[in-house]
Design brief:
Blueprint lengths: L4 E2 L8 H7 L5 E4 L15 H5 L7 H16 L7 E4 L9 H17 L2 E5 L22 H6 L4 E4 L5 E4 L4 H8 L3 H4 L10 H8 L9 H4 L17 H15 L16 E3 L16 E2 L10 E3 L2 E10 L8 E9 L4 E11 L4 E5 L5 E4 L5 E7 L6
Parallel strand pairs: 2-3, 2-4, 4-5, 13-15
Antiparallel strand pairs: 1-3, 5-6, 7-13, 8-11, 9-10, 10-11, 10-15, 11-12, 12-13, 12-14
Length: about 375
């Protein structure tokens, strides 16, 4: 259940009003958190905070007031509510917090508009829109992609433009195709690796949020386990994606930062997909067996071609059902660690190779072992 802020009274609803709010139009506010934000717990003292320029939270309160004013000017005042993540979620209520994280994509999709407030624009270090730190944050990716109508404002709440008028700048900065940005094409049509590449290079304050902020982008849900660490959270996200998608581009990552020996099929970070924006899934009628997680690793059918013995004993190129260009499949490097059970591990994780169709090798059922320290 979404909790909305009344833009006129600048107050949150009581329980009775909360039920009446469901289904009413609203605007969501996207921004970069500062050190002293007004939160849900601070709202009973909001009038005092907003009247005290020396209060550490005064700047946050002023931001909220300006956001309310901007919402009331939107659509000639027909929208009178907004959703602001700093005050509209009771983060001490773990059930509510988890529900909110798993619902955010839908809430952004259903909003009348998303107002993006760029607090650092203009400033000496940020002369243009796309140099704002807003483009470096993990959570702002869904705030750009999910809503149909995204409107940008500078630090003084002057209108900069919307997603359509700024499409070229946004596309150049984020590498997200304009058809996906403007909802001309469903996000589900973008390959897993394409969507992962949009997240590469972004940061979150809480390590696990780099995974949790991507739930909506991949249409999955999962429990939040803060404290599990960034890598485990991101691995769980990929495992959840595997339950619903047979897209091999999930495995089309590379990174010099990855384990050079003993890596599994899953990446340690979205950053490993930095260069995968043009990889597309290519379904194969001959290879339609589902892949799945087992206690021996990921069970999957892949085309294997052994490398020449002098290059690396027991090493193979595994061709995945993912294209780079019109006619080349992508290959990852595997090493066989058990002939008996056909168990492999990923090696040479800093590179991928291109494989022509006629040289893909033999289709085999194998297990790809995850790293030992996962």
């Amino acid at each position: 259940m979404i909790r909305l802020l009344d833009a006129k009274s600048r107050q949150l609803p009581d329980q009775a009003e909360l039920k009446r709010q469901q289904g009413c139009p609203y605007v969501v506010i996207s921004h970069v958190w500062q050190e002293s934000e007004v939160t849900f717990e601070d709202m009973p003292q909001f009038k005092t905070i907003s009247a005290s320029p020396t209060d550490p939270q005064y700047a946050s309160a002023l931001k909220m007031i300006k956001a309310c004013d901007a919402v009331l000017r939107h659509e000639d005042g027909r929208v009178t509510h907004l959703w602001l993540d700093t005050v509209c979620i009771d983060k001490k209520n773990l059930t509510e917090f988890s529900t909110a994280i798993n619902s955010m994509w839908r809430w952004y999709r259903q909003a009348s508009a998303c107002f993006v407030y760029l607090e650092d624009l203009p400033s000496p270090g940020v002369p243009t829109l796309t140099e704002s730190k807003w483009f470096l944050r993990g959570w702002t990716l869904q705030e750009l992609v999910a809503p149909r109508n995204v409107i940008f404002f500078d630090r003084n709440w002057n209108l900069i433009g919307n997603k359509e008028s700024l499409q070229q700048e946004l596309m150049d900065r984020t590498k997200i195709g304009v058809d996906f940005l403007l909802h001309r094409q469903s996000i589900s049509r973008a390959s897993i690796s394409q969507r992962m590449s949009w997240s590469a290079g972004r940061q979150t304050t809480v390590p696990e949020d780099i995974a949790y902020s991507l739930l909506g982008l991949f249409s999955v849900n999962m429990p939040l386990l803060y404290g599990e660490g960034k890598e485990r959270a991101f691995r769980r996200l990929q495992e959840e994606i595997m339950r619903y998608s047979d897209d091999h581009s999930l495995f089309a990552w590379k990174s010099a930062m990855a384990r050079s020996l003993g890596s599994g099929l899953l990446a340690e970070s979205p950053d490993f997909f930095q260069e995968t924006g043009d990889y597309v899934h290519k379904p194969n009628r001959q290879n339609n067996k589902p892949f799945q997680l087992t206690n021996k690793g990921i069970s999957i059918d892949l085309y294997l071609q052994q490398l020449y013995p002098q290059q690396l004993q027991g090493a193979y190129v595994a061709s995945i059902d993912c294209l780079h260009g019109q006619s080349h499949y992508l290959g990852i490097f595997l090493e066989c660690i058990s002939e008996e059970i056909q168990q492999y591990r990923r090696i040479r994780t800093n590179e991928l190779c291109r494989v022509v169709d006629v040289a893909r090798g033999q289709l085999k059922s194998i297990f790809v072992k995850p790293p030992d320290d996962i």
